[in-house]
Amino acid sequence: MHRPLIGISTYVEASTRYGVWDLPTALVPTGYYELVQAAGGAAVLLPPDEPGRAAEVLCRVDGLVIAGGPDVDPVHYGAARDPRTGAPATVRDHWELALIGAALASGLPLLGICRGMQALNVALGGTLHQHIDGHVDTPGVTSWHPVRPVPGTRYAALVPEEAEVPTYHHQAVDRLGRGLIVSAHAVDGTVEAIEDPDGSRYVLGVQWHPERDKDTRVMASLVEAAAARRDLPKPVAVPAP
What we know:
The protein has one domain: Rossmann fold, CATH 3.40.50.880.
C-alpha cells in the first residue's frame, strides 16, 4: 500500500547561501515533512506557483498542510495595517490562499499550522488580531503553554486532555470565518484551534507548531483522512480563466 501523499506549502527566501551559491530558495523547516512521515504519510513540498494552478497541483496529492510563517497581509481581511504587523509576503499569501480555496472546494483534507490556521480563517472571510501580548516572550524562541480542547469537536476527539504545546506567534483569530468553529483555547481565551464541524470533510487549523513536538496525533488524523480519500475519484482541475 502506498502511503498517502501530503503536500506541504513552502516559501521563498530571497537569499540562501550554499557553499559558493547564494540564491533564492523555496524551503520549509524539516520538522514539517518529518512529522508527516512519522504520522505514516509521504511528504511532497509545494513551491509557490500561479494561484490559478492550485487546483491542478492539488489533484496530485491526498492531503494538504499549510505551514507556519509570516503574518498574513491585512489587506486580505479588509483591515488597516497595525505597525506591529510584519512586512507583506505577497506571493506566499496569494499562493496559499489559492491552495486553501482549492482544497476546500474539492474536499481535500486540510491542516493549517500557525500562519496556516490564520490563512484558513482569512480565506473563509474571518479576521485576525494583528498583535497580542504574552505569547512570545523572547524573539526567535518557541515557548510552551497549555491549550484546552472544546468538548464535542474533532480536535477534542484527537486530544481530549489539556495539552502543553510549542508556540510562537503574535497574531490570532478574531472573527471566525464562515462555517468554522473554535475547537481549542489557551488559558487566556486566545483561539488555539479551529475546524469545520462537518464530519464529512477534514478541515482543521492549530495555532501552535506540532512539527516542534513529538505528539503525532493531529498529523496522524490528517494522514488517516487523506488515506480514506485517496481511493475516491480525483477532482478534475478546471483551467484558470
